[in-house]
């Protein structure tokens, strides 16, 4: 398929720069993927769309303050480090700027109690760094103190509260970008869903900044998807498999939940444990686990809109995006939501 098929015009003013408050007052486009019918609602109306025959599957990964600013040791040359994933204790794969001046054994000083040593340069240009800090300090505490949340490139304003770029159920640190479909849930809304008999299962997929990397190949089949790491606990896998056997609707919250479920599925069952995935979902694709999807509105020609097109149907998806633009929906991370059933 040609990448240009997934392009659309988005007025810049529709790119949301700040979150809606309360979170569940964002708009919600309900799309029936069988009929193509579109209904415009608000996210708190998800209570009416779901019932006790539904199981929500959320990604509980938490965004770490992965952006560190410092200087190349013994110089005034500024350096920016974006931590992508932990390889082992205190060792991370990262993006370093300016890359041309930072090679193996370079030391980047963040503060007198925190520095980074480049231990390897990868073929893709990323670096492996060792984080140096006093033995009596915790790296998570240092990141909280000196790190910043790395916002997507299309968000040009600064957020006042770092929790704005976290889901309310985020619990396991490891992501450099947020699973933004979950932004629309409040703790109160989750309680109301549970009161209605709607169960929730958690999976963990740590999201890297490569999620914003554009598809460069003209034919999307030639695109190589980045690797992401996931974990599904045994009790969560049992909950999902039990719901599937009972004929419940598996509602994935976000494309990362979709990619985790589809990657961990063997013989129509989710397998618990740790894994990595490079799955690239685009039309046509036979979904094994997911019956419905809650998602945001994604960038043109991105792997995310391609996944949505595989689930909702290409024509339905492009029509929905056209309606969203005409109706003034807010787009991207802090934007409005779709419920595709």
Helix-strand layout with pairing:
Blueprint: E1 27-31, E2 38-42, H1 46-49, E3 54-59, E4 61-63, E5 67-72, E6 78-88, E7 91-97, E8 107-111, E9 114-121, E10 127-132, H2 139-146, E11 172-175, H3 187-195, E12 199-206, E13 228-232, H4 234-245, E14 249-253, H5 255-263, E15 265-266, E16 269-270, E17 273-277, E18 292-296, H6 303-312, H7 314-326, E19 337-340
Parallel strand pairs: 1-19, 3-12, 3-14, 4-11, 14-18
Antiparallel strand pairs: 1-2, 5-6, 5-8, 6-7, 7-10, 8-9, 9-10, 12-13, 13-17, 15-16, 18-19
Give a verbal description of the structure:
The protein is α+β, with helices and mostly antiparallel strands and 341 residues long. Helices cover 19% and strands 30% of the residues. The chain has 2 domains: 242 residues, QueA-like (3-Layer(aba) Sandwich), CATH 3.40.1780.10; 80 residues, Thrombin, subunit H, CATH 2.40.10. The strands form 4 sheets. It has a 9-stranded mixed sheet. Strands 5-6-7-10-9-8 form a 6-stranded antiparallel beta barrel. Helix 6 packs across helix 7. It is globular and about 65 Å long. The chain starts with 26 loop residues before the first strand and ends with a strand.
């Amino acid at each position: 398929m040609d990448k240009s098929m997934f392009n659309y015009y988005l007025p810049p003013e529709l790119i949301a720069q700040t979150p809606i408050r309360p979170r569940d007052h964002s708009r919600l486009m309900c799309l029936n993927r069988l009929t193509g019918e579109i209904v415009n609602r608000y996210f708190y109306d998800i209570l009416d769309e779901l019932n006790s025959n539904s199981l929500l599957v959320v990604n509980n990964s938490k965004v770490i303050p992965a952006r560190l600013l410092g200087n190349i040791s013994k110089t005034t040359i500024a350096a920016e480090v974006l931590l992508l994933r932990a390889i082992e204790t205190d060792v991370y794969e990262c993006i370093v700027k300016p890359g041309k001046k930072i090679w193996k054994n370079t030391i980047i000083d963040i503060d007198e109690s925190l520095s980074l040593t480049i231990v390897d340069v990868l073929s893709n240009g990323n670096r492996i760094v060792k984080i140096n800090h006093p033995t009596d300090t915790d790296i998570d505490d240092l990141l909280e103190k000196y790190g910043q949340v790395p916002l997507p490139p299309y968000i040009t304003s600064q957020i006042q509260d770092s929790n704005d770029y976290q889901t309310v159920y985020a619990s396991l640190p490891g992501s450099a970008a947020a699973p933004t479909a979950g932004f629309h849930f409040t703790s109160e809304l989750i309680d109301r869903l549970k009161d209605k008999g709607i169960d929730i299962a958690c999976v963990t997929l740590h999201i890297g900044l490569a999620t914003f990397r554009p598809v460069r190949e003209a034919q999307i089949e030639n695109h190589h998807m980045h690797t992401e790491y996931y974990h599904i606990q045994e009790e969560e896998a049992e909950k999902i498999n039990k719901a599937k056997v009972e004929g419940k609707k598996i509602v994935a919250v976000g494309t990362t939940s979709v990619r985790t479920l589809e990657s961990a599925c063997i013989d129509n069952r989710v397998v618990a444990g740790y894994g990595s995935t490079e799955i690239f979902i685009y039309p046509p694709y036979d979904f094994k686990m997911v019956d419905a999807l809650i998602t945001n509105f994604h960038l043109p020609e991105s792997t995310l809109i391609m996944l949505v097109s595989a689930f909702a149907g290409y024509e339905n998806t492009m029509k929905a995006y056209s309606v969203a633009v005409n109706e003034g929906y807010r787009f991207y991370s802090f934007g409005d939501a779709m419920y595709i059933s």
